[in-house]
Amino acid sequence: IVRGNQQVELVIRLIGGASILVVLIFCTVAMVWVYLYVRRQEMRNRRYIFGGSNNTENHRESRRIRKILFLYTLSLYFSYAPGLFAAFANKPISASISRTFVPLLGFWNMLVYFLPNCLKYQRDHPGTWLVTAYCQVLRPQAPCAWSP
User: pLDDT tens across 22-62, in order?
Assistant: First the structure.
């Protein structure tokens, strides 16, 4: 590879952009597949539910999973989609965008992972902000600046 060759640089950027695009498409399809599988299981199990339970109660698990999968997919897009656009920007901007957004994937995933615990904390302590619930869930012994 000739250093500084513009054609080689363009090919490398195209390969990088294509690989990010393939990862985004694969993860999105996998998330949709998991949701559809859970939904089908609920539909199959519906015939074994007796009594007057309503339809929304029967689909509680698929709604919960749909929300979590949507948030995980959204965090993936928030982290890697700017890198896809940066693949075709000039080099200093591309490097700074990658250094900024890619590590945020762990932060977004942490927020999504602890969201059910924070929502449970909010249910147990009415009137609590979501930020306060995150503070209490992540560090239960430490006082939170946003606590009432």
Answer: 988 999 999 899 888 888 888 887 777 666 555 556 677 77
Structure confidence at residue 51 (pLDDT): 61
3-state helix, strand, coil split of the chain in percent (to 5) is: 80, 0, 20
Whether 46 contacts 56, CB under 8 Å: no
> Closest by alpha carbon to 31, among 70, 2, 57?
70
Asked if 41 and 98 count as a contact pair (C-beta separation under 8 A), the reply is no
Tokens of 5: 């060759």
pLDDT digits (tens, 9 = 90+) for 102-143: 888 889 999 999 999 999 999 998 988 888 888 888 887 766
Cα separations in angstroms, 1 against 6, 10, 17, 88: 11, 13, 19, 20
Q: Are 109 and 95 in contact (CB under 8 A)?
A: no
HEC readout, 43-112? HHHHHHCCCCCCHHHHCHHHHHHHHHHHHHHHHHHHHHHHHHHHCCCCHHHHHHHHHHHCCHHHHHHHHH
